[in-house]
Amino acid sequence: MPPRTVLVLLFDGVQSLDVTGPVEVFAGAAPAAGSASGGYRVRTASLDGAPVRTSSGLILLPDHSLAEAAVPAPHTVLVPGGQGTRRPDPRLIDWLRVNAPGAQRIVSVCTGAILLAQAGLLDGRRATTHWAYCDRLARDHPAIDVDPDPIYVRDGNVATSAGVTAGIDLALALVEEDHGRDTALTIARHLVVFLRRPGNQAQFSAQLAAQTARREPLREVQQWITEHPDDDLCVESMAARARLSPRHFARAFRTETGLTPGRYVERVRVEHARRLLEDTTDGVEEVSRASGYGTPEAMRRAFLKNLGTPPAEYRRRFHAPSPS
């Protein structure tokens, strides 16, 4: 099989990691497969073929102008994000609108989704972007079903991903789909990253979703909750660990983290249970105990409330193959 052509769009203000992360993944496909063919032919292009300055100040030299790169149509068009997506050159949007539909696959990293949206390529589709821009994407483009939670989303031949490193996860998923798990695993090992975080994994962990408490006793309690989700995590127990009265603890915890103690514990336990369902073959009853739920039914109610799906169905969806 001849190499698939991946065309990466470059523009002033692009985020360098949005470019280099996926490019390193695609570039490693042929060596990982032990062949000089059958991988990817990665090409970069800017509007006029001129060098671009990334948001961090690096200069990138493209292979082509976009006009030169349009024929023949690439297999995959990859649109990175960055500060340059805030006020993009209208010619870039026009090029995407006219030429991207000719590709077999359209991919965005981070706020590259904003460029796809402006070109009308996400209308009627489910998509994501960096968490800080999901509200803007949904507000400015109501025809898009914006999902702020997952690290990447596949909808037909269009894939969108969250910020920066999520582009590596998505690229690994595409390599796995194109060339198999062994090739993707070899690349991941070389880059010292996970084989891939499946797309439905949340952008935020429970700890990142909440603020970190300023006071050390409260931070210690946050860490304890994370490391011991199956412990007694009632307010009285946590307050004693922080050496505060239950009332003072509850008030201070909410003030400094933005969440009530109960809500924080709930998020940690759901996240812990999700990871066990994703990474182990433990039964639902065993997972529920390890995650601090008294019964599988209690975990089921928590999953329905927070994820809209019961644990068994969550595991099934997680391990289901990605759509082509």
Question: Nutshell version of this structure?
Answer:
The protein has 16 helices and eleven strands. The chain has helices at 16-27, 29-33, 66-69, 90-99, 112-118, 134-140, 166-179, 181-191, 206-209, 216-227, 235-242, 246-257, 261-279, 284-290, 296-307, 311-319, and strands at residues 4-9, 40-46, 52-53, 59-60, 64-65, 76-79, 105-108, 126-127, 145-146, 152-155, 158-161. The strands form three sheets. A seven-stranded mixed sheet has the order 5-2-1-6-7-11-10, with helices on both faces.
Offer a few descriptive terms:
324 residues; alpha/beta; Rossmann fold; Arc Repressor Mutant, subunit A; 2 domains; two-stranded antiparallel sheet; 11 strands; INH-QAR; HTH_AraC; DJ-1/PfpI
Task: Walk me through what this model shows.
- Helix 7 runs antiparallel to helix 8 (181-191), helix 13 (261-279) packs antiparallel against helix 14 and helix 13 packs across helix 15.
- This protein folds into two domains: 4-191, Class I glutamine amidotransferase (GATase) domain (Rossmann fold); 206-319, Arc Repressor Mutant, subunit A.
- The chain is elongated, with a radius of gyration of 22 Å.
- Helices cover 47% and strands 12% of the residues.
- The strands form three sheets. The protein has a seven-stranded mixed β-sheet with strand order 5-2-1-6-7-11-10, with helices on both faces. It has a two-stranded antiparallel sheet with strand order 3-4. Strands 8-9 form a two-stranded parallel sheet.
- It has helices spanning 16-27, 29-33, 66-69, 90-99, 112-118, 134-140, 166-179, 181-191, 206-209, 216-227, 235-242, 246-257, 261-279, 284-290, 296-307, 311-319, and strands at 4-9, 40-46, 52-53, 59-60, 64-65, 76-79, 105-108, 126-127, 145-146, 152-155, 158-161.
- It is of the alpha/beta class and 324 residues long.
- Strand 6 (76-79), helix 4 and strand 7 form a beta-alpha-beta unit.
- The mean pLDDT is 88.
